[in-house]
Amino acid sequence: RFVVQYNYFCYNGQYYHQVRGGAIGSPLTLIIANCYMFFFEQDIGEQIENTNALYFKLY
After folding, report:
1. Is residue 44 in some structural domain?
2. Which residues form the domain of 27?
3. Residue 32 lies in a domain
4. Tens digit of pLDDT for each residue in 8-44?
5. CA distance 36 to 54
6. Rounded to whole angstroms, how far apart are CA atoms 30 and 14?
7. What is the pTM of this model?
8. What is the C-alpha separation between 22 and 45, in angstroms, rounded?
């Protein structure tokens, strides 16, 4: 929680406190995003299996 709540950045010589979201480039933000997507995709997969729907995934 500490890492996500206390993000500061510098823009044009002025420092700002980021109040929403995670800092891009932070190693912890990457891990949190990957965990979120893993569980999100599992939920979608279960819904598709239960409804016999067709699902395409492109990257």
Report:
1. yes
2. 22-52
3. yes
4. 888 999 999 888 777 777 788 888 888 988 888 888 7
5. 23
6. 26
7. 0.51
8. 26
Q: Tell me whether residue 47 is in a domain.
A: yes
Residues near 33 by Cβ (< 8 Å), separated by ≥ 6?
Answer: 22
The residue type at 49: E
- The number of distinct structural domains making up the chain is 1
Supply the DSSP string of 1-58, one letter for each residue.
-HHHH-EEEEETTEEEEE-SSPPTT-HHHHHHHHHHHHHHHHHHHHHHHHHT------
The CB density around residue 6, as the number of other CB atoms within 10 Å, is 10
CA dist 18 and 15 (Å) reads 10
Pairing between β-strand 14-18 and β-strand 7-11 as defined by DSSP bridges = antiparallel
Examine residue 12 and state whether it is found in any structural domain, yes or no: no
Whether 45 and 54 have beta carbons less than 8 Å apart is answered as no
